[in-house]
TrEMBL record:
<keyword id="KW-0315">Glutamine amidotransferase</keyword>
<keyword id="KW-0004">4Fe-4S</keyword>
<feature type="domain" description="Glutamine amidotransferase type-2">
    <location>
        <begin position="33"/>
        <end position="250"/>
    </location>
</feature>
<feature type="active site" description="Nucleophile">
    <location>
        <position position="33"/>
    </location>
</feature>
<protein>
    <recommendedName>
        <fullName>Amidophosphoribosyltransferase</fullName>
        <ecNumber>2.4.2.14</ecNumber>
    </recommendedName>
</protein>
<feature type="binding site">
    <location>
        <position position="266"/>
    </location>
    <ligand>
        <name>[4Fe-4S] cluster</name>
    </ligand>
</feature>
<dbReference type="InterPro" id="IPR017932">
    <property type="entry name" value="GATase_2_dom"/>
</dbReference>
<feature type="binding site">
    <location>
        <position position="375"/>
    </location>
    <ligand>
        <name>Mg(2+)</name>
    </ligand>
</feature>
<dbReference type="InterPro" id="IPR029057">
    <property type="entry name" value="PRTase-like"/>
</dbReference>
<keyword id="KW-0411">Iron-sulfur</keyword>
<feature type="binding site">
    <location>
        <position position="468"/>
    </location>
    <ligand>
        <name>[4Fe-4S] cluster</name>
    </ligand>
</feature>
<feature type="binding site">
    <location>
        <position position="376"/>
    </location>
    <ligand>
        <name>Mg(2+)</name>
    </ligand>
</feature>
<dbReference type="InterPro" id="IPR035584">
    <property type="entry name" value="PurF_N"/>
</dbReference>
<feature type="binding site">
    <location>
        <position position="313"/>
    </location>
    <ligand>
        <name>Mg(2+)</name>
    </ligand>
</feature>
<feature type="binding site">
    <location>
        <position position="412"/>
    </location>
    <ligand>
        <name>[4Fe-4S] cluster</name>
    </ligand>
</feature>
<dbReference type="InterPro" id="IPR005854">
    <property type="entry name" value="PurF"/>
</dbReference>
<comment type="similarity">
    <text>In the C-terminal section; belongs to the purine/pyrimidine phosphoribosyltransferase family.</text>
</comment>
Length: 492
């Protein structure tokens, strides 16, 4: 994903990614959140620690783990990276065989400790902890109704809404959770834990990824399969849309809280968010991205001397483009991996250099060469222009930009931090106008059919290959009220 220097005045904290939404100086779609759950393992907290570390790319603002030992909760949450929030002593204090964990990137909810997950509540049946990835679209309406009925909210996280819905129900925990989940509209993957139960739920469209694995007799749940690999667990299957899994002393029960809707897994998980060593719907992300690059080459070949990808998410696609065309793949752009949270606000002189803080062009690779630059998307466009100019400054004679997704034209309501539609350059300009705007010699986007084919292709049982592509085609899988009632982004 490209990175951009944001305008003066939008940096409100000490670090570039402190805060929410547009206070980030780099123009990038933000990682959502990551969840990790363990049931039936005596070292549940340590497994969660390693699992969350593998999911760190999905959220860097806060991390937390809550553990149940059958009678009590022990939990710890903090702001920062997993390795900063937890140490040996903290992990050793988290005793129990059942746990849920969370890494968070907030977009709508405030960046503060009270919103760090798992959220923990006192409940009439004992303790209740909740971790989620995604966004409840109708949260403003539900929150207002609950407040009118007397609920007092302690956080700005929409995850708290389901806790109030459960607590106000006269039914037992499982039935109350089912009723609460039925009222939610949006994309979400929930882990709900009491002293003796773990509930796992996916939204009716399967918008957010959630996978079940096994480690010996223990069950593991995670946003991405890469976390299973880290702890040596075996992937079993994805949690189905509208499914509710109930784990307690009687083992695992597979139920439903609602009928499945149109299968619509977020296409951006394939294009950008998930780690390349993860699998989605049985498809490896690195391989899928290579196929995207190959399809891009078939659709929009251009004669050039080298192919390079914008690190890290576009490297796989760049390799695929190079293999298909026979043009050599080279590391023409290098990412500085040590900016992270400790990237202290720079001087104005360095701010003006913007992208050079994050990326460097390799002059000996691109100088005097015609370069094909592969990237996964264009958001506002200013980042792409800076990277194109970076390559030109390093001596590239031509820069041809190839984007391995269709034009990003519409905001996301299901958990991705996106700007207002008016700030998305593809919603306002043609491909030719964007090409001129980013100072490229040519520009092409991958077609919707090419993307679907690269990921897995059409089949008679799935609409658009089972993908949500609303950010490209405005076809939202849930009802959306565009009069301002629905909430964009991810405030889990």
């Amino acid at each position: 994903m490209s990175h951009e220097l944001m305008p003066e005045g939008l940096w409100t904290g000490d670090y570039y990614n402190e805060g929410t939404g547009q206070s980030d100086i780099f123009d990038t779609l933000k990682e959502e959140c990551g969840v990790f759950g363990v049931f039936g393992h005596p070292d549940a907290a340590s497994l969660s620690y390693y699992g969350l570390h593998a999911l760190q790319h999905r959220g860097e603002e806060s991390a937390g783990i809550c553990v149940a030992d059958g009678e009590n909760f022990n939990y710890h949450r903090g702001m920062g990276l997993v390795k900063e929030v937890f140490d040996k002593d903290k992990l050793e204090s988290l005793k129990g065989g059942m746990s849920i964990g969370h890494v968070r990137y907030s977009t709508s909810g405030d960046s503060r400790l009270t919103n760090a997950q798992p959220l923990v509540f006192k409940y009439r049946e004992g303790n209740l902890a909740i971790a989620t990835n995604g966004n409840i679209v109708n949260e403003p309406k539900l929150r207002r109704e609950l407040e009118m009925e007397g609920s007092i909210f302690q956080t700005t996280s929409d995850t708290e809404v389901i806790a109030h819905l459960i607590a106000r129900s006269p039914k037992d925990f499982v039935e109350a959770a089912k009723d609460a989940l039925k009222r939610l509209v949006g994309g979400f993957a929930f882990l709900l834990m009491t002293n003796d139960k773990l509930l796992v739920a996916s939204d009716p469209n399967g918008l957010r990824p959630l996978t079940m694995g096994r480690l010996g007799d223990a069950y593991i749940f995670t946003s991405e399969t890469c976390a299973l690999e880290v702890i040596g667990a075996e992937a079993i299957r994805d949690v189905a849309p509208g499914e509710l899994l109930i784990l307690d002393r009687n083992g695992l029960r597979e139920e439903r809280y609602t009928e499945a809707g149109r299968k619509a897994l977020c296409a951006m998980e394939y294009i950008y968010f998930s780690r390349p060593d993860s699998d989605l719907n049985g498809s490896n992300l690195h391989s899928a991205r290579k196929r995207m690059g190959s399809k891009m080459a078939l659709e929009s070949f251009v004669d050039a001397d080298v192919v390079t990808g914008v690190p890290d998410s576009s490297i796989s696609a760049a390799i695929g483009y190079a293999e298909q065309t026979g043009i050599p793949y080279e590391l023409g752009l290098i990412k500085n991996k040590y900016t992270g949270r400790t990237f202290i606000q720079p001087s104005q002189e360095l701010r003006e250099q913007g992208v050079k803080m994050k990326l460097s062009a390799v002059r000996r690779v691109v100088e005097g060469k015609r370069v094909v630059m592969i990237d996964d998307s264009i958001v506002r466009g200013t980042t792409s222009r800076r990277i194109v100019n970076l390559l030109r400054e390093a001596g590239a004679t031509e820069v041809h930009v190839r984007i391995t997704s269709p034009p990003f034209k519409n905001p996301c309501f299901y958990g991705i931090d996106t700007p207002d539609r008016r700030e998305l350059i593809a919603s306002e300009k043609s491909v030719e106008e964007i090409c001129r705007e980013i100072n490229a010699d040519s520009l092409s986007f991958l077609s919707p059919d090419g993307l679907i084919s690269a990921i897995g292709g059409y089949d008679e049982h799935s609409h658009k290959g089972g993908l949500c592509m609303a950010c490209f085609d405005n076809d939202y899988p849930t009802q959306i009220d565009f009069n301002g009632e629905e909430k964009m982004g991810c405030s889990c």
